[in-house]
Amino acid sequence: MTNFTKTLLLFCFSLVVIPRSVAQVELEGSLKAGPEDASKYLKNYMEPGILSFANGLANGWVNTAKTHKLLGVDITFSVNLGSIPKEAYSFAYGNAAGWSNLRLASGDGNLPTVVGGNSDNQLFIRADAVITDPKTGESISYTADSDNFSAARGLDVSDIPFAGVPTPTLNIGMGLMKNTDLKIRYMPSINAGGFAVDMFGIGVMHDIKQWIPGLKLMPFDLAGFVGTTSMNVKIGYEFEQPSSGGEPDDTDVFYTDGRASTEFKVSSTTVQLLISKKLSVFTPYASVGYNIVSSNLDVKGTYVYANDLGEELRITDPVSLEFGGGSSPRVTVGGQLKLLVLTLHADYTIQKYNTFTAGVGISVR
After folding, report:
1. How high does pLDDT run on average in the chain?
2. Which has the closest alpha carbon to 131: 299, 269, 7, 315?
3. CB 165 within 8 A of CB 123
4. Burial class (CB within 10 angstroms; exposed 0-12, middle 13-18, buried 19+) of 97
């Protein structure tokens, strides 16, 4: 497994380990096809993992509609798993008209995503391919077809009934005045060995039943919640140099000064209306709401494209992607078990990527 592909897999699974074997993947071929095709390929390949992670990040905030008393506190740890639909295990190559330089050599054209396992699809970069720097407009042309290379392989999750990217969250909540809870998510910046990550989130839950005449004495809790989380991940690596000892051959791409990175940013905002009813030590709860999800993935660094005529083109930061389509309405049903100050909770959310959440916490007052 090469350094570049390691970073993309590590980005998706850096915080947790999915108990599956990770098949070797080859993503450099798409990068050699130029920024336009590389961006299209990587977006299709990475999108299921990114949206699973982002939808999971919107969960785990609340497990009851009852707010704390003044200065009451809770510390809650949850793991959220956004299920990736099976139709997202692959994406269609389509036809050559949809790609500038990348061509299908053989196979059915259904290329695996990051969770798509293996396939027999072979790709190549066409003769006379034009590699263009989108920032400067400079370009060079290749002079011959590249060798065939395999479509990037993903994790094989075909036998997992609820496959997705687990998203752990840790919340600290405190009761304020007027039946209002303030909730904080925080991960201090970690920077080691070329890997950096930080996370921050803030949420507010407020008892709205107190403001509605006739509801104050009803035997259930009703609250509104809004919370937002942002997370940044940066993974540095050294791109492998040409095996020829430094001289590129045709359709070769390599990194020149030994420093590059993949950077990922995700933000998830959720707005919910919650209802719950305490039944001795068990509290069932439900909510309806909406998630607003956005994600970005950037491949940073300076890359050299060279042809057999001795021409070179240096392109800086060749890939910058935005992932939309993750926002959606949401409906959650779950339950909380409270034993003295210990709480256990689990719920299921129907949203863009349906999400299962389970966790444990300590709650006082």
Report:
1. 84
2. 315
3. no
4. exposed
In one-letter notation, the amino acid at residue 235 is I
For the chain, percent of residues with pLDDT exceeding 90: 46
Q: Determine the straight-line distance between the first and last CA of the chain, rounded to whole angstroms.
A: 51
What is the 8-class DSSP label of residue 218? S
Q: Among 28-32, 38-42, 209-213, which is the least confidently predicted range? A: 28-32
What is the pLDDT averaged over residues 70-77? 94
210 phi/psi in degrees, rounded to 5:
-65, -20
Q: What's the pLDDT band for 257 if we cut at 50, 70, 90?
A: low
pLDDT at 180 over 90: yes
Helix (H, G, I), strand (E, B) or coil at 17: coil
Reduce the secondary structure of 297-364 to three states and give it as a string.
Answer: EEEECEEEEECCCCCEEEEECCEEEEECCCCEEEEEEEEEEEECCEEEEEEEEECCCCEEEEEEEEEE
| Amino acid 152: pLDDT | 85
Separation CA 55–CA 326 (nearest Å): 7
Q: Whole-angstrom Cα distance, residue 227 to residue 98?
A: 39
- Report whether pLDDT(243) > 70: no
pLDDT-derived band at 78, boundaries 50, 70, 90: very high
Rounded to the nearest 10 degrees, how much is the dihedral formed by the CA atoms of 119, 125, 126, 132?
Answer: 140
Largest CA distance in the chain: 82
Q: Distances from the Cα of 253 to the Cαs of 114, 142, 238, 302, in angstroms?
A: 23, 12, 13, 10
Residue 40 token pair = 């299209």
Residue carrying the six token digits 């068990």: 282
Compute the distance between CA of residue 11 and CA of residue 231 in angstroms, rounded to an integer.
12
Kindly state the tokens that stand for 104.
């299908």
* Integer Cα distance of 236 and 262 in angstroms: 7
Q: How far apart are CA 300 and CA 321, in angstroms?
A: 12
